[in-house]
Give the backbone structure.
Amino acid sequence: MLKDQPLVFEMSKEGRIAYSLPVMDVEDINIEDVIPATYIRKEKANLPEVSELDLMRHYTALSKRNHGLDSGFYPLGSCTMKYNPKINEAVARFPGFAHIHPLQDTYTVQGALELMHELQQELKEITGMDEVTLQPAAGAHGEWTGLMIIRAYHESRGDFNRTKVIVPDSAHGTNPASATVAGFETITVKSNEKGLVDLDDLRRVVDENVAALMLTNPNTLGLFEEDIYEISEIIHAAGGKVYYDGANLNAVLSKARPGDMGFDVVHLNLHKTFTGPHGGGGPGSGPVGVKADLIPYLPAPIVEKVGDEYVLNSDRPETIGRVKPFYGNFGINVRAYTYIRSMGPEGLKQVTEDAVLNANYMMRRLEPHFDLPFDRHCKHEFVLSGKRQKKLGVRTLDIAKRLLDFGYHPPTIYFPLNVEECIMIEPTETESKETLDSFIDTMIAIAKEAEENPEIVQEAPHTTVVSRLDETLAARKPVLRYQKA
Amino acid sequence: MHRYLPMTEQDRQEMLKAVGVSSVDELFSDIPENVRFNGLLNIKKAKSESDLLQELSGLANKNANLREYVSFLGAGVYDHYLPTVVDHVISRSEFYTAYTPYQPEISQGELQAIFEFQTMICELTGMDVANSSMYDGGTSLAEATTLAAGHTGKKRILVSKAVHPQSREVILSYAKGQHLEVVEIGLKDGKTDIEELKNEMNDTVACVVVQYPNFYGQIEALDEIEPIAHTGKSLFVVSSNPLALAALTPPGEFGADIVAGDAQTFGIPTQFGGPHCGYFATTTKLMRKMPGRLVGQTVDGEGRRGFVLTLQAREQHIRRDKATSNICSNQALNALAASVAMTALGKYGAVEMATQNIQRTQYMKKKLTQSGISVVFDGAAFNELVIDVKQNVSEINKELFTKKIIGGYDLAKVEPAMENHMLIAVTELRSKQHIDTFVEELALLVDGKGMQHAEGSTVSF
């Protein structure tokens, strides 16, 4: 095995250090005198031993083997990879936000509570909901929280038979997974030929056992569910609640609010629409907003303003309980609040208009070269199908890998599941026309390669630090940690 | 124009033309009138970069921060040494502006860093495998209980009352969805009551959950608890502060099946409770039931070592409603921060830091005792102590605050029987002078001599 980049453990040399702890100024007692021998570790944890410069070079080398949004275009559908403003990072690092303890008395953290309260207010207005909790740590966590709220609502009415949650076949995988964690059975509803929820199929699966329908609008095909009001009415008529997956909110800021569409619960991904960085997979933040009749079940505590003072109200007898220690991913919430305040009402409206125009422009320019399963205006993202290329022996996966050679992060692929050889593209509003044009030209060039020189696509990538990795081997013989030879 | 939005009017016109519409509004014509939002959102007007920085810095300054106040608050979140390198590494935008490493060829940096994180967590906990992170210690522990219930097919969860109270609340919330029964095990001398645990064990138990060191700073007798926890099919779940495990025998050596907790102690600021960094470690046997993402080592076509997300058949994007958990986003950037801090500390630094916590806490204990303040539990402590201040803790804290001291946690908030008891944390950052001053001030207050709101008086540290 060739090891181009050593593990930090492989760089380690006995005796080197990269730390500087406070000088011991109290008695240097032996811990053996205070801790029973059974509980004293005999063999040290094998952590690395490197100097500070070694450390910086190691992680700098790793960073060079990583593609971030600042490195290049990242049109990953459903992930809203928009620019992460640097002011957000600066604000989150103010000592008054970064170095405060969650259990400090509230009179010592009024600024933090005020920020949370203000963010709750802004998110209520943006979503059209009546109250918001900032506690959930990420989107999936928000989904589960929202479903638990819906469960509590039904049970409070003595209704214990609502066991089903309906999700469309185009839903994110987290929707059915969250339904399971919340103790529900998932029922899938089909999409029609227009890519929208099939109302007949919906009517067929709805009955008195339905707790909720989970929907994202626009859906994961990037299409607005035109029948949304009717969908909400079907669910409400059966006594169920309608849940909004906020993953695609970037498409409808100032254009259509979940609350006005008939949704009862919404979660937001502050790390998508509201520019919390994705951090290589997290941390995110997944606030949940609800309509008035569900407020009693929100997790405790909630920040409230009483007179001039901000308080944490834990007196919520019907709450579903706590979903996370403390108050959510505050540091991400600070970033989201900074973003909203940087944009203002005009800015947020422009965000959606530009995101949607960018997506439609790309869709129309790529349409002659790839299959377009749904030929209508898209919202912030759209899906293509690589069916045509597949016939030439080039899979969507190959196209994605070939894009790497040109410095692009590929779109989301093979999702949603109801489109064959799916390519899901979300440009976002922060990309310039020049960037879109270059990417489009590259996609067209790859489509041409698929016809004329398919091997170069099938064998891609050619320029990355590693070529395609053996994922089967990784799963069959899992090596999940370094072990000294 | 806005600095984040590059589209010019000329771009707009060209793009509209290419799309074949005359205005952007046409692109929204599929939104029915009855759900359309017209006009502008009623939110605050945009602020310029400099004005906003000024406003938000003012808001931040309304908070008493741990750089200006000397804090003895712990209770699950700690004020620790933050190696300067940590923030430099996680500020590299190749890391923090990247998505989940689904395209391994251009994500080797992140994947390798997480592989190293998994290794370090295994080393500290003494477990076989660790995942790439969870939201936080509380939800990680809750997922441990649901894993145990799923694995054993049992519904009864025994949780020690010396597990962090907020983690216990989260366990309870998760249990509701899965219809699990949570039974709390009481305490004896600040530790899990072994007899009560024995009495509550039966063949319906999915797992036993304890914390080590526990919420009250005490070192639980894992050697005595393990055989009880393993009666029948039950799993043994331990919540641990990974810093403590640099000095203490790891739970893996006591036969733990799952070790879960928060790595905030390594390089992650307190930031009002989040984001921190949950970790989840277990045995090879339970590996395929773990929640969350796992990074594994493999090779490419040319035989080069590389890393990929693996065993994804457990996860929601593949298994949907049959997934082992619904977790998707995790705390990757904070796992990176923790890795950098663990690397900076290294083999000896981690032990030295953990040892300093024990030594300084011991010094605190001695000073308190000398000053006549009663330290309630006498067992071995890591970096927290429970003291009896004989009066309302929040009143005491109000007085301490005027001296630029943030006192300990008011235990009356979690346990009515603990009225007038304060949980104090002593990390490596609390110097002899900090401790001496704290004890002096506290002694005056406990005696009732200092209760006069000495506004303006300052204490030098």
Summary: The radius of gyration of chain B is 26 Å. The CA atoms of residues 129 and 436 of chain B lie 43 Å apart. Residues 453-461 of chain B have pLDDT under 50 and may be disordered.
